[in-house]
Amino acid sequence: MPVAEPIREIAGVAPGALPDELLRSTEPLVLRGLVAQWPMVQAAGQSTSAAIGYLKRFDHGGMPVVATVAPPEAAGRVFYDDDIQGFNFRREKIPLAVVLDTLRKYEADPAPPLIYVASTTVDTFLPGFREENRLGFGDRDPLASIWIGNRSRIPAHQDVPDNLACVAAGRRRVTLFPPSQLANLYIGPLDHTPAGQAVSLVDFHAPDHARFPKFAEALRHARGAELEPGDAVFIPSMWWHHMEGLEAFNVLVNYWWRQSPPWMDTPMNALMLAIMSVRDLPPAERAIWKDVFAHYVFDYDEAEVAGHIPEPARRALGPMDEARVRHLRALLLKRLDR
């Protein structure tokens, strides 16, 4: 694994009232011991069996979870196949209790298959878990997800929301890169991904520097940490993160929220539309549209762009709100449906 500059650490944060300056940070932070008093963490400290028993208390069994499964040869890496056309894993719908029992079965196996339940909504599948394992986000209402599995390697990827990830069992290694390292991480397809987000094609355990020479520059900007049970890491929006589960049984609980209103669309949809409609224009036309995007989006100033239009008539050139977004979405869907 690459040697990374340590992520800045903070200790003594009160879990019941996370400070706003932390939740708005644009830099990553490690919060040692943030959730050490969670009943889930306490159970995991006793044994894997105790942790599994604790999780089973909340499993209503009403629907299966989606488990990512890969053979031992994958060495826990969730990735593509050799030609990037398919993947090195399969997904199966399995009752959570069966997943947990199977993880316990393979706990002592030195080369087990990968078993990984990813991004599963806590309130849907483990109702009551959040009430016993609390964090205070103030007026934010983040989406809470749980990740359960054995040793795993998740390639570097970005998420649009801010992310607070808490280690509830096992240990995690986190390697982060600022958003500016996009060009140096050799990102794979945007529309054919292992789990919804485009990922780096670099194997962090065995980087091929001949194939990926700019990765060496990315490493100069890497930040990392190893997290123990009870520790957490804050990952700001769009920071690249490579996540590893280091033990035979690992549980992570994470919280996602955006700084923008819920009615705003994801910028990834805008990127896809721009690729579809702008990227392959003749160079002179593309340069014109670069200026258009700068004027209306990236350098937007309402007085400069729309000051000559009466405020009630500015429509999309005025500040966005839920009604305007609904109108624009309907207009866009109508134009795309042809």
From TrEMBL:
This is Cupin-like domain-containing protein. SUPFAM superfamilies: Clavaminate synthase-like (SSF51197). Residues 115-272 form the JmjC domain. Pfam families: Cupin_8 (PF13621). InterPro entries: Cupin_8, JmjC_dom, RmlC-like_jellyroll. It comes from Pseudoxanthomonas kaohsiungensis.
